[in-house]
Every structure is written in C-alpha cells, then in structure tokens.
Amino acid sequence: MNMQDKGRRLTVLLVAAALVLAGVLTAVFRSGGGEPAGRDYVAVVRIDGAIYGGAEAGGLLAQQQGTASERVMRELREARLDPHAKAVLLRVNTPGGSAAAAQEIAEEVDKLRSGGKPVVVSMGDLCASAGYWIASRGDYLFASPASMTGSIGVYIDYNNIEELMDKLGVRNEKIKSGAHKDILSMFRPMTEDERAMLQQMVDDIYNQFIRTVADGRRMDESRVRALADGRIFTGRQALDEGLIDALGNYYDALNYAGSRAGFADGDVPVRSYGAEHPLSGLLAAEADAVGRRAAEGMMDRMTQAADGAPVVK
C-alpha cells in the first residue's frame, strides 16, 4: 500500500469517527438524555429565563436569550403524542416575558391535560408573570418556600427622550400613513388618545390573564383580581393564597408526577427534553461541524489524487 492509499484510508477512518462522534453528541445533548426506547417515563420540560415568541437560537446564544415558545410547544406536543410519556413535569424558572408566547405554551399544556396526561409544575427561583400564566394551567403546582411567584399583571414599557434630544439639538421627523403609526415613539409625547388605546390593550390582556388563572386554579375571578395587582408572593405566601398546591423541590414534584403516572416513589424513570447543559448546544453544533470539515477534507484529498493538483478554497 503506497503513501497515497494510506492517507486516503486514514482520512476515511477519521471521517467515520467524526461522524459517529457527531451523531452521539447530537443525540445525547439535544435529547437531554432519556430512557431506553419502549419504556414508560415522566417527561421533563424546562422553561429557563425570559419567555419570548418565535424560534430558539442555537448554542450558547439560546441560553442567554431565555426560552422560545416554539421550543417549549414542540416538546410539550412531543410528550402529548408519545405513548410512553405518562406524565409531564414542567420545571419553570422565569421572571416572565411575552403574554402571547405564554398563551401559546399554555394552550399546549391544556392539550396535554385534555388528553389525560397530568402536568405537574415545579417552580425554581422564579415563576412570575408570564411564567405563572403557564404554570396556572398545570394540574398540581409545587414551589419552594422562598420561590417567588405571582406578579399577575400586564404592562407596556415606554420611554420619552424628547428633552434630551432637544438639548443635543437633534430633531426626529417622520412621514407616516396615520396619526398613530408611530405610537410609543420615544421622540415625542404620547397623546391622550394613544394612552387610552394602550390602556385598553393592557386591560384586555390583563383580563385574559385573570380568566386564565381563575380557570386553571378553579378560583373565583374576584378572588384572583384581589391578588392580581402585580405583587409577587413567596412560595409559602402563594400556598396560603391558593396560587400553588404544595411546598417542595424538584424531586418532590417529580415523585408526585411519578405517582400520578403509576410509578413507585423514588423510582421514577425520566426523559428530559431539550438541552440541559449550557455548553450542550455548542458541543452539538461543533460535533456537526467536525463531521462537515472532515468530509470536506476527504473530498479535497480525493480531488487532489484525481487531478494531480491541490485544491485552493
């Protein structure tokens, strides 16, 4: 075997090893681990960081941005359609976020419950605002005594830097199709009509929030309104007010979810959906890149052998 044949064989072996590594890392990190195929389990779905609508970015950026509604909806739907997922543990650690994104996720929680699969919520440090919107749709809610939850309310943020622009001698001008097209512009005062419009929007979403919690927690709307002035509650306070069902940590919630699914206490098989480690997305992406680079290198060498000339990229 000449040196060219040896080099080509080594390249093929490196490509095969890289592709195997890429497949293993991608499967492990993107699935978050799991039980063997064919075995029943409790599905764990996580919400970490601010909730926003749309698709999730890849790698470390996803961890920094928060939680994308499309990712959570996809995982909840997967659990709903999987006959081996007997219950869902929704682990929530978020200060809140988009109301519309929370609605999207809450709808998937409702579908799970309608399909007969219990949804147990475990609150981390925070489960507030949009996080509680989602959590309130669960069958049973756990929080630690010092968890912070509640914050039932809605607001629209607005800044006005008109005076600063005047001091700088800068004037903003717009050509617009209608009087309210630049509503919430930071370069001019808000008109009374616009303030009334936005207040109506906030009130509408707030009333939706109230009804969502009242229905999910089986509470009278007037009782929810008395608690829904934007205040936050500790886990212990939330239990007293009926906003959660029990005090306990992640494993207490997991054992309860397991009991609802028919598993023995302390022996609950789990499949964690999504990436758990902050480097998992990056490593999976790097594994894919390794395979691509190795394959490209093999093609370059094969081209060189065939044409007798190096390939310039």
For the structure shown, list the relevant keywords.
single chain; 313 residues; alpha/beta; 2-enoyl-CoA Hydratase, Chain A, domain 1; peptide peptidase (sppa) fold; eight-stranded mixed sheet; two-stranded parallel ribbon; 10 strands; 15% strand; disordered C terminus
Structure description:
- The radius of gyration is 26 Å and the shape is globular.
- Helix content is 50%, strand content 15%.
- Strands 1, 4, 5, 6, 7, 8, 9 and 10 form an eight-stranded mixed beta sheet that branches.
- It is an alpha/beta fold and 313 residues long.
Task: Itemize the secondary structure elements and their pairings.
Blueprint: H1 3-31, E1 41-48, E2 51-52, H2 59-65, E3 67-68, H3 69-81, E4 85-94, H4 99-114, E5 119-128, H5 130-135, E6 140-143, E7 148-150, H6 162-168, H7 192-217, H8 221-227, E8 232-234, H9 235-241, E9 246-247, H10 250-261, E10 270-272, H11 280-307
Parallel strand pairs: 1-4, 1-10, 2-3, 4-5, 5-6, 5-7, 6-9
Antiparallel strand pairs: 7-8
Helix pairs in contact: 1-11, 3-4, 7-8
Could you give a quick summary of the protein structure above?
The protein is of the alpha/beta class. Helix content is 50%, strand content 15%.
